[in-house]
């Protein structure tokens, strides 16, 4: 067994430097690598290009890195619900590349799968298509999108083992499963790091080969963005 | 009387047929799930990675790891499944999802839709909307016919940056049900008590009106 275990979040983020491109898993605040984000907030690393579906909220998730102006550019599909983000974007302090969500996911998956580019119908005829090669397949227009190139991919899983095998829970799988292995180095923070042999190989979502560093997060707040409930009759 | 948001959702729910897989957008479309007939089999997909969505959880049973694309806490029904984002849009692009219902800021008579950006004012992003509208066969838009200033959002040509081109099939507003045809918007139904003249006056695009226009039935 090739172990991927590092002792803590500080060891996990070794080598992350200013001006790097980093992928962050999660959808909204669901399944974000909150321990690693918190550790990065406590560094002086800046000018990061962040690939993440969303940008957190003002006081949690990637919003914390935005508050400290550590992010130079965001590549995302949806950035609402974040006043500081909007302010930095409209004032020109923050560079933003908005990309359709399915395209964002596939650009991660393509990087993970060693595919340099692909064609998708999403965005054809819109400003997203500007400057991109367009081709017709089966009577329908598509645009070419390229795989991401990231220095680090940072993902969060429910359970993992020292071999780097990952299992996600619920909709926290989202971009985490697409980003694992999509950066030069993949860091996985897990809620529970279990001994090898504990996880059923049939149930592994991401095999350990995609992960270079794994650690158990110290604490998970798992904040809920929109708490919606129904009333019992 | 112009329809309430709930009534728009109720009318759209009639478009949901037996054995449909349906993706619901944020806002009015989310309400549609409340009004789908109980005697038909329908599964709701949310693009963040769940098929077989159920109602909101009871207070105290919320799970931060189980949300919909609107980031709301949800539950799952028997037979549900979770998957990653790439897989989710794979099933959307390969047209396994039968019907997409989403909101819009503007719709034009050739079926273009704009719903993600107001230059200089509001830039929230397109989320999954561009993938959904470029992929789905059947796209129904739930929207208000006019904005707060009383200006029509049903246009000859969209003025805002587009989300997709020539993709919308049907539009349900507080005033009317419109079908997008090769020749433009065809008025199919009107809200109870709303006159055809009122709909024409509220619509910048041309309307194809054939015969008596029936009132919506819920």
TrEMBL record, chain A:
Matching SUPFAM superfamilies: NagB/RpiA/CoA transferase-like
Lineage: Bacteria, Pseudomonadati, Bacteroidota, Flavobacteriia, Flavobacteriales
Pfam families for the chain: CoA_trans
GO molecular function, one term: succinyl-CoA:3-oxo-acid CoA-transferase activity
Keywords assigned by UniProt, alphabetized: Transferase
Superkingdom assignment: Bacteria
InterPro entries: 3-oxoacid_CoA-transf_A (IPR012792), CoA_trans_fam_I (IPR004165), NagB/RpiA_transferase-like (IPR037171)
This protein's name: 3-oxoacid CoA-transferase subunit A
Organism field: Flavobacterium resistens
PANTHER family in the cross-refs: KETOACID-COENZYME A TRANSFERASE, SUCCINYL-COA:3-KETOACID-COENZYME A TRANSFERASE
Membrane-crossing segments per the record: none
UniProtKB/TrEMBL annotation, chain B:
Keyword Transferase: yes
SUPFAM superfamilies in alphabetical order: NagB/RpiA/CoA transferase-like
Any one GO MF annotation of this record: CoA-transferase activity
Pfam families: CoA_trans (PF01144)
Key words, A-Z: Transferase
Entry superkingdom: Bacteria
SMART domains referenced in this protein's UniProt entry, alphabetically: CoA_trans (SM00882)
PROSITE patterns in UniProt: COA_TRANSF_2
The keyword Transferase is annotated on this UniProt entry: yes
Family matches, as NCBIfam families: pcaJ_scoB_fam
Similarity annotation: Belongs to the 3-oxoacid CoA-transferase subunit B family.
Listed name of the protein: 3-oxoacid CoA-transferase subunit B
């Amino acid at each position: 067994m090739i172990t991927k275990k590092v002792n803590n979040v500080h060891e996990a983020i070794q080598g992350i430097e200013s001006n790097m491109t980093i992928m962050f898993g999660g959808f909204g605040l669901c399944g974000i690598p909150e321990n690693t984000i918190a550790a990065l907030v406590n560094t002086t690393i800046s000018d990061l290009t962040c690939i993440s579906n969303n940008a957190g909220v003002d006081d949690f998730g990637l919003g914390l890195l935005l508050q400290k102006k550590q992010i130079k550019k965001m590549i995302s599909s949806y950035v609402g619900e974040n006043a500081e983000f909007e302010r930095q974007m409209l004032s020109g302090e923050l560079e933003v590349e908005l990309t359709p969500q399915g395209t964002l996911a596939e650009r991660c998956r393509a990087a993970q799968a060693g595919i340099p580019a692909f064609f998708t119908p999403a965005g054809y005829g819109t400003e997203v298509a500007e400057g991109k090669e367009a081709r017709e397949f089966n009577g329908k227009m598509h645009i070419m999108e390229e795989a991401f190139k990231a220095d680090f991919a940072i993902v969060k899983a429910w359970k993992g083992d020292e071999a780097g095998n990952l299992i996600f829970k619920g909709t926290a799988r989202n971009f985490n499963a697409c980003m694992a292995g999509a950066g030069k180095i993949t860091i996985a923070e897990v809620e529970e790091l279990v001994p090898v042999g504990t996880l059923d190989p049939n149930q592994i979502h991401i095999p350990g080969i995609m992960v270079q560093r794994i650690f158990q997060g110290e604490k998970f707040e798992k904040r809920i963005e929109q708490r919606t409930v129904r009333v019992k009759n | 009387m112009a329809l309430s948001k709930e009534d728009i959702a109720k009318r759209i729910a009639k478009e949901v047929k037996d054995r449909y897989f349906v993706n619901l957008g944020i806002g009015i479309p989310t309400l549609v799930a409340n009004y789908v007939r109980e005697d038909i089999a329908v599964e709701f997909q949310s693009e963040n990675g769940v098929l077989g969505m159920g109602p909101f959880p009871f207070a105290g049973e919320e799970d931060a790891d189980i949300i919909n694309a609107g980031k709301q806490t949800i539950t799952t029904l028997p037979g549900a499944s979770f998957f990653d984002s790439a897989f989710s849009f794979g099933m959307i692009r390969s047209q396994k999802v039968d019907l997409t219902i989403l909101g819009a800021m503007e719709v034009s008579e050739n079926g273009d839709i704009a719903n993600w950006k107001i230059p200089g004012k509001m830039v929230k992003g397109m989320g999954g909307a561009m993938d959904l509208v470029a992929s789905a066969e059947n796209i129904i838009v739930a929207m208000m016919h006019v904005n707060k200033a009383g200006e029509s959002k049903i246009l000859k040509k969209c003025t805002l940056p587009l989300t997709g081109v020539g993709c919308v099939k049907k539009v349900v507003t507080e005033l009317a049900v419109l079908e997008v045809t090769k020749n433009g918007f065809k008025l199919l139904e009107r809200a109870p008590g709303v006159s055809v003249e009122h709909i024409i006056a509220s619509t910048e695009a041309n309307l194809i009106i054939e015969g008596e226009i029936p009132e919506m039935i819920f």
